[in-house]
Specification:
Layout: H1 6-12, E1 17-20, E2 26-28, H2 29-45, E3 53-57, H3 62-74, E4 77-80, H4 87-96, E5 99-104, H5 109-115, E6 124-126, E7 135-136, H6 137-141, E8 156-157, E9 171-172, H7 180-187, H8 189-192, E10 203-206, H9 213-224, E11 228-231, H10 237-246, E12 251-254, H11 256-263, H12 267-271, E13 280-283, H13 290-300, E14 304-309, E15 315-318, H14 320-325, E16 332-333, E17 337-342, E18 355-361, E19 367-368, H15 372-377, E20 379-380, E21 383-384, E22 388-392, E23 398-403, E24 408-410, E25 413-415, H16 417-425, E26 430-440, E27 444-453, H17 461-469, E28 483-486, H18 500-508
Parallel strand pairs: 1-11, 3-4, 3-5, 4-8, 5-6, 6-7, 10-11, 10-12, 12-13, 13-14, 27-28
Antiparallel strand pairs: 1-2, 9-19, 14-15, 15-16, 17-18, 18-22, 20-21, 22-23, 24-25, 26-27
Helix pairs in contact: 1-2, 2-3, 4-5, 11-13
């Protein structure tokens, strides 16, 4: 221990450019360190103790990074709040997390002000001009020393799961009581799995909203390894290529939707940018169609890594060579993780047989804050599941079929929408696609596809026929969608997660779900 961790690195080299805001403003490590230190002194003055929590409703950039760095060295829980939420949803998280301070960026003031109603006025802070009902952050930090606070101890993030079923839950881990830099150095194990090396020159590109677990984990860990964090505000395909060239980006965290949109760029646009710096471009969060991934390898070379994991811990990793020898896999279990595939009765299934995926990670226990029932319901001995279905091959590689909740039961057969989506997604006239079951009197459920056409493509019966015909010989007829509807834009969270329930709901009005 002793060479990594942001606070250590910043003291050793205060001039290092540790972060770049979306507008191109560069921030030296020494300045970020001083800001984080002043914030700790100020919040301690407000009475915060180790184990307390703070919430931030902030866009991608160093304002959120300073909140994170302060909490991580003061033994606090930091909860970044999803900025797409409404006031009452924000209020729920601020209240449920028992936050002792809430920071709001002016960009999200309208809903942020509604969300602040559950916390006392002297604990609400605005990151900007003075405004009624909030204190300015400068009130906390002005006159505070830049020096390291006494009794530093490692904090943790507490992310709220997306809440696809009922209210979102905070995933809370125990604090480890370590020195913050030592704790940060332990975190670098995660990036080490991918072969990522510490030191300069390295730059980590942040493409997705910082309120997602993986974005915080990968970005924070890259920073602790001495990489420069380069933030994007709103993701755009060509802008990403420009930024990669400009800052010689070496690593990033992406989702398959990014790949699809990057590949849709004209050939001359793609060829315009020097991407020779890319070394570890990591993706997760959704299944990636096999042809899309092959196309990324052809363009970017062997720098595309994939993993499967959950906020709750544990996971798999597919290296470029592992994936190429096992196309479609999400990889093998991490050295500190174990996988278990079980049937409906919780009994292990044979190799090659699909079942519910359970995982466990050594030394990583968690609880859903305030919900022991939910914590227990998702467990099997010391394994847990997020409800995904998949199978292991004879080499121990995991393949995902779908989420249990999305499985279609038609005529008694289990049909996995992800398989159908992958086949439709590769069609050049498709920008995005979702497949799910809708009520069918005879079969229980029938298969519906909803398609977002590629730019400039006319939706209609002709396109529907062409898309279905493209499945000939590639997918059994029983898996073909019975009908195709079109949509201008797919409802996705910015991390790439599809909000299927939004699409599905209208079709199920007045019906009881059969499953």
């Amino acid at each position: 221990m002793g060479t990594l961790g942001f606070w250590r690195l910043a003291q050793a080299d205060p001039e290092w450019i540790a972060a770049v805001d979306p507008d191109g403003t560069e921030h030296r490590a020494g300045d970020l360190l001083a800001r984080a230190n002043r914030l700790v002194h100020g919040l301690r003055g407000l009475g915060l103790q180790p184990g307390d929590g703070i919430c931030g409703l902030v866009p991608n950039g160093v304002d959120g990074l300073v909140l994170y760095l302060a909490a991580m060295q003061a033994g606090w829980y930091y909860t970044p709040v999803n900025w797409h939420l409404t006031g009452p949803e924000i209020a729920y998280i601020v209240s449920d997390s028992e936050a002792k301070a809430f920071f709001v960026h002016p960009r999200y003031l309208k809903e942020g002000a509604r969300g602040a109603e559950t916390i006392e006025p002297h604990r609400r802070f605005i990151l900007g001009e003075k405004i009624d009902g909030f204190r300015q952050v400068s009130e906390l930090t002005d006159g505070q020393p830049d020096t390291a606070p006494e009794g530093r101890t490692a904090g943790a993030t507490m992310h709220y799961t997306s809440g696809t079923t009922g209210k979102p839950k905070g995933v809370k881990r125990g604090l480890n009581g370590l020195d913050p830099d030592d704790s940060a150095e332990l975190m670098t194990f995660l990036l080490g799995l991918f072969g990522i090396t510490p030191g300069r020159p390295n730059a980590h590109l942040i493409t997705s909203p910082n309120y997602h677990t993986a974005v915080t984990q990968f970005g924070g860990t890259a920073l602790h390894m001495g990489h420069t964090l380069v933030y994007m505000d709103k993701w755009d395909a060509e802008e990403m290529l420009r930024v990669c060239e400009r800052y010689r980006v070496t690593n990033s965290h992406l989702v398959p939707t990014h790949f699809k949109r990057l590949l849709a760029l004209p050939e001359q646009t793609r060829a315009k940018y020097d991407l020779s710096s890319l070394k570890w471009m990591i993706h997760a969060a959704a299944p990636c169609p096999v042809p899309v991934k092959w196309a990324m390898f052809e363009w970017w070379g062997d720098c595309v890594y994939e993993y499967y994991a959950a906020t709750e811990g544990g996971g798999t990793l597919a290296t470029p060579e592992g994936w190429k020898t096992h196309p479609g896999t999400v990889g093998k279990a991490w050295p500190i993780s174990e996988l278990l595939i079980v049937d409906e009765q919780g009994e292990p299934v044979p190799t090659g047989t699909a079942g519910t995926i359970y995982m466990k990670m050594m030394g990583a226990s968690f609880e859903y804050k305030g919900d022991p029932d939910k914590t227990a319901a998702n467990r099997l001995k010391d394994y847990f599941t997020v409800g995904d279905i998949g199978y292991l091959d004879q080499d121990g590689y995991l393949y995902l079929c779908d989420r249990k909740a999305d499985m279609i039961i038609s005529g008694g057969a289990n049909i996995y929408p992800a398989e159908i989506e992958n086949e439709l997604m590769v069609h050049p006239k498709v920008a995005d696609v979702a497949v799910f079951g809708i009520p069918d009197e005879e079969w229980g459920e029938q298969i519906k596809a909803v398609v977002e056409p590629a730019p400039g493509i006319e939706p209609g019966p002709e396109l529907a026929r062409e898309l279905l015909a493209s499945l000939e010989g590639r997918l059994a007829r029983m898996k073909w969608p019975k009908s195709v509807d079109f949509i201008a834009e797919m409802p996705r969270e910015p991390n790439g997660k599809l909000l299927k329930r939004k699409l599905r709901a209208p079709y199920w009005e007045g019906h009881d779900r059969a499953i």
